[in-house]
Write a structure and sequence with these properties.
By secondary structure, this protein is of the alpha+beta class. It has five helices and four strands; from the N terminus they run ααβαβαβαβ.
Amino acid sequence: MYQLDKLRKHRRKIYNIAQKHFASRIYIFGSCVRHEETKKSDVDFLVDFLPEASLLDLIRLQDDLQSYLKRPVDVISRDGIHPFLKDEILKEAIEL
């Protein structure tokens, strides 16, 4: 089973975790979406945060998702995407 399918099975719990950190929408991108992941691959999350979210919310969300999924994760906010990568990430990202 691909990691993306596993994430979809845990969608409700992932959103519950995310909402505690003022996240409103969650997208997956990277090797997970392309079905190129390995056992050592991280999961790349693109997150839309509510205005009251802080950098600490992003960091804590990353920590909580990593603990829950038992694998490395990267969390970036839509506003935090490097301009050089933005088009590629947004084209590839799929909502969880």
